[in-house]
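Researcher: I'd like a candidate sequence for this fold, 176 residues long. If you have to choose between options at a position, lean toward the conservative one.
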């Protein structure tokens, strides 16, 4: 099932929501925020459930995704902590747990022996793919239940959150 979103309509919805923040009654803005947060929370809960069924704590799952999904498919502990928005010591503990379970390996840098990277193992990649397949099935079911207005409200606020505009003629940031 392919859903088509009208970019101009979406852009207008985002601008209207942003504009409503500055008026006496910002209900339209909060309506979009509510929908965006509902969608995000629901999807994250579905992901967390599947991660747990796959034997991973949700933060471990996110760590594996951040490492595997990084441009070089490797991260330093400090970088993993930043991506997870947690303290480096906590990230180090998570990565040690994953290493004990043979889901990550540590590698020394070719250029600087003081730098250690963490990479996911082939087993971790297979696990991530299995979890993702299950997540996709559940997310597909959930998103089929959303109305077009709900989708557009959520997307317009997400666009605002990341500061983008779909209108090429309006190349300024959405949060200017």
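Model: Candidate sequence:
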């Amino acid at each position: 099932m392919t859903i088509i979103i009208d970019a101009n309509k979406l852009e207008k919805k985002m601008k209207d929501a942003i504009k409503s923040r500055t008026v006496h009654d910002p209900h339209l803005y909060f309506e979009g925020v509510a929908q965006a947060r509902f969608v995000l929370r629901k999807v994250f809960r579905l992901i967390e459930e599947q991660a747990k069924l796959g034997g991973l704590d949700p933060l471990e799952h996110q760590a594996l995704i951040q490492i595997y999904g990084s441009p070089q498919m490797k991260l330093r502990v400090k970088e993993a902590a930043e991506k997870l928005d947690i303290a480096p010591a906590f990230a180090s503990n998570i990565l040690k747990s994953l290493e004990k379970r043979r889901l990550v390996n540590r590698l020394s840098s070719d250029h600087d022996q003081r730098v250690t990277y963490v990479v996911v193992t082939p087993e971790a990649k297979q696990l991530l793919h299995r979890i993702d397949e299950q997540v996709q099935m559940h997310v597909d079911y959930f998103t089929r239940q959303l109305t077009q207005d709900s989708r557009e409200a959520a997307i317009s606020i997400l666009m605002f959150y990341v500061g983008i505009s779909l209108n090429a003629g309006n190349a300024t940031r959405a949060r200017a």
